[in-house]
């Protein structure tokens, strides 16, 4: 089998890599591509190109309307190339093709949405309390953006950064994850084809400790947009102590899904499956803690077990496959460790808890359900696994359900299943999380802000306000009096 080769995109050109690394196909464990490992020098070249484009040249001179048109064109190109990009993402991360195709086609809408917003982000005129002055507030691009993404859904997680950043007039250096960077490096070709001026968008693959560190601490970077794990986020915050870049953090979760006895149990069971077994559980919003009303616990668990055991595990390239492999062996080892510790501490295995037979070489792990037997201290209840492992806890009353839902340092997403409208609203009000899905799960839109409470992060992506986060205001004071400048020793 021939090995595919990818290159970094720096200052409008596809650069020869000085160092490379192998990328594996997680469904077989075989090397399928060679990726560029961006060095600190590559990062410097990319950031300097982004800075030049920000300060001078066609991008700096472009109207917001023209920037918006470029973004819409990029969105159209993503849609036109969705199948090719999806094939690459599936190959490089093991995410199933039926999801990568649908998700990437939708990524086009994120670029179109921010393209449409580019010339609608207005400044203001302040009715200032000084008769001889006029003040206008100009929103200006914050500067060079360092965007850093994890390996799951890289095109999607990049779009929520690039869209508002470019609409605002910023320039970007985007670092793909070292795991599965192929779709982003191929996306660079579409950025080029769309006609963004050289240096406006630069895309690199590389490792965190050198490329990521240099990028997020670079003196010319003014804004860091990070998605990844909490431990890396702490490192990013340390990195930005050097450049004092304004930073947003989209991190992990241990999201609760609360199922009340009055819910439509079959529909709720489907949603719980969507929350934890879709994307093989490798989703920041994974609904990994099921809180179920005790009176329906046994019945609900029986339905879930049946659905989990019916999931079609297999080749992620097969459109019939419902669950593919994990993306990395590191992931699988972590999951196995936490599951073993949880069972040793009294958790009861309802299903799964093993590598499924018949997939030698691939990084597969069976859909797993662990009844925590009311022990909320079990590792599988506390830790983010980023895999297909659901922990189950029973509750007796609504107040207990809410307390359990909030019993985590995270606060990214949550789900509530009930047919009682008032109860749904009370839960939505009480849950400490950036997203509450009522009688649904894992729904996203470019129009809706997304982000976490607590250890799940800082800031929001998506929606109208995201553009504001990529601008800073400039207050312009104009004195309109012909009188001489007054007493110079008194502040006005
Ligand atoms: P990770 O934190 O290990 O890596 C994320 C990115 O950070 C990678 O590109 C990596 O190279 C880079 N990085 C690592 N060390 C760095 C450093 N010192 N300086 C700069 N960059 C560095 O995360 P991962 O394992 O790739 O992804 C899984 C995590 O991402 C999970 O915790 C998941 O919940 C989270 N996630 C969050 C969201 C969200 O929107 N909230 C979405 C997807 C994934």
TrEMBL record:
Signal peptide: none annotated. Pfam families: Aldedh. Gene3D superfamilies: Aldehyde Dehydrogenase, Chain A, domain 1 (3.40.605.10), Aldehyde Dehydrogenase, Chain A, domain 2 (3.40.309.10). Coiled coil: none annotated. The keyword Oxidoreductase applies. The keyword Oxidoreductase applies. GO terms for molecular function: oxidoreductase activity, acting on the aldehyde or oxo group of donors, NAD or NADP as acceptor. CDD domains: ALDH_DhaS (cd07114). SUPFAM superfamilies: ALDH-like (SSF53720). Residues 18-476 form the Aldehyde dehydrogenase domain. Keywords: Oxidation, Oxidoreductase. The active site is at residue 250. Belongs to the aldehyde dehydrogenase family. This is Aldehyde dehydrogenase. It comes from Mesorhizobium amorphae CCNWGS0123.
């Amino acid at each position: 089998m021939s090995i595919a080769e990818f290159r970094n995109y720096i200052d409008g050109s596809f650069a020869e890599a000085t160092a490379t690394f192998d990328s594996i196909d997680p469904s077989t464990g075989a090397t399928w591509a060679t990726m560029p490992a961006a060095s600190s020098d590559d990062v410097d070249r990319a950031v300097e190109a982004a800075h030049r484009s920000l300060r001078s040249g066609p991008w700096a001179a472009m109207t917001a309307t023209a920037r918006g048109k470029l973004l819409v064109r990029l969105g159209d190109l993503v849609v036109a190339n969705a199948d090719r990009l999806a094939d690459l993402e599936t190959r490089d991360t093991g995410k199933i093709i039926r999801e990568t195709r649908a998700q990437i086609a939708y990524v086009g809408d994120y670029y179109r949405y921010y393209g449409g917003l580019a010339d609608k982000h207005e400044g203001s005129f302040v009715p200032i309390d000084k008769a001889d002055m006029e003040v206008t507030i100009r929103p200006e691009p914050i500067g060079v953006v360092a965007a850093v993404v994890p390996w799951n859904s890289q095109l999607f997680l990049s779009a929520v950064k690039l869209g508002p950043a470019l609409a605002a007039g910023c320039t970007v250096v985007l670092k793909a994850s070292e795991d599965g960077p192929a779709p982003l490096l191929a996306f660079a070709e579409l950025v080029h084809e769309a006609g963004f001026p050289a240096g406006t968008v630069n895309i690199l693959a590389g490792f965190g400790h050198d490329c990521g560190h240099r990028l997020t601490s670079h003196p010319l970077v003014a804004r860091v947009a990070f998605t990844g794990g909490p431990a890396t986020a702490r490192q990013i915050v340390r990195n930005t102590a050097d450049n004092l870049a304004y930073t947003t953090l989209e991190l992990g979760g241990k999201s609760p899904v609360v199922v009340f006895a009055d819910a439509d149990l079959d529909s709720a069971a489907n949603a719980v499956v969507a929350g934890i077994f879709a994307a093989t559980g490798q989703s920041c919003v994974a609904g990994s803690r099921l809180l179920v009303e005790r009176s329906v616990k046994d019945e609900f668990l029986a339905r879930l077990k049946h659905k989990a055991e019916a999931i079609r595990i297999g080749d992620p390239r097969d459109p019939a496959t419902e669950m593919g492999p994990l993306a990395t062996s590191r992931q699988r080892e972590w999951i196995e460790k936490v599951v073993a510790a949880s069972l040793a501490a009294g958790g009861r295995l309802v299903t799964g808890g093993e590598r499924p037979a018949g997939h030698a070489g691939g990084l597969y792990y069976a859909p797993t359900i662990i009844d925590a037997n009311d022990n909320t201290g079990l590792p599988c209840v506390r830790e983010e696994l980023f895999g297909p492992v659901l922990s189950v806890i029973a509750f007796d009353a609504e107040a207990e359900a809410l307390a359990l839902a909030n019993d985590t340092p995270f606060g990214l997403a949550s789900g509530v299943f009930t047919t009682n409208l008032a109860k749904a609203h009370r839960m939505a009000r009480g849950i400490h999380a950036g997203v509450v899905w009522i009688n649904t799960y894992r729904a996203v839109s470019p129009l809706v802000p997304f982000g976490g409470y607590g250890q799940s992060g800082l800031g929001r992506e998506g929606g109208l306000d995201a553009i504001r986060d990529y601008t800073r205001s400039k207050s312009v004071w104009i004195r309109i009096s012909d009188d001489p400048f007054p007493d110079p020793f008194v502040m006005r």
